[in-house]
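tl;dr need the bound structure. longer version: we got a ligand (beta-D-fructofuranose) that a collaborator sent over and nobodys looked at where it sits. i said id run it. heres the input, straight from their email, havent touched it
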Amino acid sequence: MKDIFRPSFHFTPPANWMNDPNGLVFFDGEYHLFYQYHPHSTVWGPMHWGHAVSTDLVHWQHLPIALYPDEQGMIFSGSAVVDVNNTAGFGKNALVVIFTYNKDYKESQNLACSTDRGRTWTKYAGNPVIPHPAHVRDFRDPKVFWHEDHWVMALAAGDSILFFTSPDLKHWEQSGSFGSGFGSTTGVWEMPDLFKLPLGKDGESRWVLIVGVGNGGPAGGSGTQYFIGYFNGKKFISENHRDTILWTDHGSDYYAPQSWSNEPDGRRIMLGWMSNWQYAREVPSDGWRGMFSVPSELSLKQTEHGIRLIQQPIRELQSLRAEHRHWQAETIQPEVNLLKAFQGQALEIVTEFQVSKDVKSFGFRVRVGVDEHTAIRYSVEDETLNLDRTRSGEVTFHDAFAGVHSAKLTPVNHVIRLHIFVDSSSVEVFANGGLVVLTDCIFPSPQSNGLELFAEGGQVIVNSLDVYRLNSAKFQVVT
Ligand code: FRU
């Protein structure tokens, strides 16, 4: 069978099962990407760390498996740092990964290091560096970074994030905790990330704490929330009320994201696993399962509701742009499809709509075929952006899959902006400059390549529209 759902520009494992991104670090000209990997099956199992490298975050080289499970347990998620000052004694500029061993639901934190640009890895003989605490079931996913004069670890533990500090990556002391009733608390907390971003141009900044929630996400199942606040080197303090829930993504398929450390341009770039624990094991598979979102660059914006996270697709993706059409100041009437001539499985759409009361809803249908499409629809009356995959293709493999995923989106100066990526089995929508994001997997027939721009209940003006066919990214296996 042809591999019809294999994306052309999103990262997938060469074969078998993948979940969370792990150990994202830039070192010596390469972006490293590790991932939760089960190399013997298309469903989750004893976790390894798969490994790939890239010089531009677009084209990837698959490298041999970096970490194998052993008698101490499976290799669960974690992060990576460059030990510039050789604090751990593994060597100057050693790459160090900090991961969770999981054995019979006992979880501990551990190190492995590499002094050959990440090509071979040695587990630290003194593991664990943080042993499993008695009677605690969830204690995992360490995110480590250097802060002023010490290492900091954010660790997920049940309904909260714990913070630890260390001078040398080997000796850790707990310095604080956050959670227990803040934000979304309907599922186990997993995969924290913590980083500082500038706010405006006056030297102000805030810290962002990213937290995966295992259940009760905005589209059901797992989802990713974030908190905005302060970090004093020891603990995080939210600047919002405990009832405030901020979702990183309002679609169904953006989980366990992580950001790159040591990024050479000082950008904060993050990518997530495009799936959902509700049905991850059941999505159509042809010898592989699991893919990652496009990487996005993060920033903060002051809005009337408070400070919000902004996600924008990284500029490197523009190198994939091929055939292009541009329109401006077009009036879209119901039943007329401006994009009839434009077909494709891998597309990028950048557009700006002028919103008025003349129209009820408008948007795009992508991957259109016989009885099949995925709709990206803005509803003017209730100011919501909807991603509707009820008729997107294969949807019956799990009850929770078919659905419409929505987010509140207010026009800015009467304008709605959409930046959309479509691939063989996904749709990502970045709205109003990345203030609202919706990420969904879809499984359409390979013949469903149509594209429609629609207006319902009146006409809408498109201020500008750019549609690009995208070339495939290169994925090369190095053995
Ligand atoms: C998140 C997660 C992590 C864990 C890993 C196991 O998706 O559940 O908490 O480390 O997956 O594969």
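gonna send this back to them w/ a short note. The first strand starts at residue 16 and ends at 27.
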